Amino acid sequence: MKIGVTDTGKPSYKKYVEWLQRLQPLETIKLSYQLNNADAIDKCDGVLLTGGQDVHPKFYGKPEFLSEVDAADLDTHRDEFELQIIVRSQQLPLPMLAICRGLQAVNVALGGTLIPDIVHAGYPSHRLDGSDTARHRVNVTFDSLLKTIVSVSQGEINSRHHQAADKLGKGLKIAAISDDGIIEALELKDRERKPFFLCVQWHPERMNDFENPFSKNILQEFLKAIQLHQQ
User: Residue 98's beta-bridge partner residues?
Assistant: First the structure.
């Protein structure tokens, strides 16, 4: 089993790999524009889109939002590379799990838009200052893949984001939402006969309570879907 993992460009990349390998040995392939290896996706059995910096608003047709994003941390090379990875992984198609920025990139790749800063938009903050993550409740859509995976209607997740999905990309539907109305998970409307596809706004790889179904169950089902896809 080989899973492509998009490069964060930071030490946090290791956390994603360690989380993926927590239940069984597997091989990961770092997908990075710095390695110029977009074609490596063709060797992967699944793909994990990682968190990180904001997506440049020009990619979702809102260049006027530039003042509301962390412009100093933008990386348009990463944006272009990962949008390409998303499109290619859907063409193959491959099981996909997208985390935090990954959710936002998927929404943009499928024609959606983002809220550039949820606090500026009038929502409560979904992150704490410093390196810690906030915690809050999510409400799971009753007829979603996510509900099948976690087997609960509500739960507590970690949170460290200031952007969120706004207009949904083509073919997507909401799988979870916070009490204050922020989209916390996305999946495909039509998932029949298609590989695993789930986007979450939280960080399952960073949860201290791995047994939390919003971490462990998601990993289990992602790996199971990859194994089935290999057959």
Answer: 49, 199
Is 26:20 a contact under the CB 8 Å cutoff?
yes
Quote the DSSP letter at residue 201.
S
Give yes or no for a contact between 166 and 64, defined as CB atoms under 8 angstroms apart.
Answer: no
Alpha carbons 231 and 227: distance in angstroms, whole number: 7
Active centre residues (catalytic): 100, 203, 205
User: Cα(117)–Cα(24) distance, rounded to whole angstroms?
Assistant: 37
Rounded Cα distance between 101 and 49, Å, is 8
Lowest-confidence pick of 24-33, 79-88, 111-120, 128-137:
128-137
- Domain 2-230 -> CATH class: alpha beta
Nearest Cα to 71, choosing from 58, 54, 51, 50? 54
Looking at residue 225, its amino acid is A
Whether the predicted model's global pTM rises above the 0.85 cut: yes
